[in-house]
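Record 1 of the preview.
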Amino acid sequence: MRRNPRRMLHYGAIPMALGTVLTGISEFQIYEMNHAVVYIAWSIWWISVVLAAAASVLLICLIVSRETRSIESVTGAWLLLVAPLAVCASTGASIADYLPTDLAYMTLIVSYALLGAGAPLTCCILVLYVARITTFKLPPHDAIVTSFIPLGPAGQIGVAALSLGRIANAVLLDSTPQLDILGPTMLGAGVLIALMSWGFCVFLLTHAVFSVVYQRRSAAIPFNISWWSLTFPIGVFGSLTAGLGEVLDMRYLQVNFMVMVVLLLVLWMFNMVRTIAGAWTGSIFGIPSLANKEDTTKESTSCAVTICDSRSTDRYV
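->
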């Protein structure tokens, strides 16, 4: 792994998975069944914070120190380095709503710090990604669905800003009365950031759909493990749409959220069925584009060795 840090990019999915579990606990209000669940979830959140910070810092250091990269090699998978920071910030806002005032205030501060670290890094990688897709050709047709990945981190920034703004408006009034004036300001800033994030997500979604349709015209898109990259981005975009629809009281956004929920359910069922079938036959393991790249590398290496051997033979003849 240390020799090829690119294989470690998916380690960022671990704290993101923990964040999904904690968000589910919050949304289904399991806290009301047993108050101890609040502190268990809060402890798990701190574990996810440590994992997210470690994954972001260590993986970036490994990639910078051990690899020479070009802009052509930038993919949506790079966002897995920094996306956990925004996910933990959003999850912290969900948990802080059920914590005592002093613990909620501390969670709020840490969550804003995580968002402050994750949002600029995400924007930097998104700039590189947009430069890559406007300068070089699209990804291979068997990995083209990864074009949806940037939609997730971009939307997660808006979700985190909106969630933290809501909690700040309530927590600051009780914990620090001298800062109560910042509550409505932070809520307004969260709504503004969420709106801008939603607009950028619309662009990324349009580009991803165009990329898939364009590649589908030239060749069929086979099912592989990268199809699961569709679920998280669409889920995050749906959460952002639902949050804005609730705050702004816009029925249009609420209807869009219901459509995304149905679409996400269909995608989950489709991916689950195809993954089980592919695991049974063994076709789901490995992405053909990566296999082709490895085969090309092996062929190039063997050709180079053959040329060197022929030159050495000619020298001694």
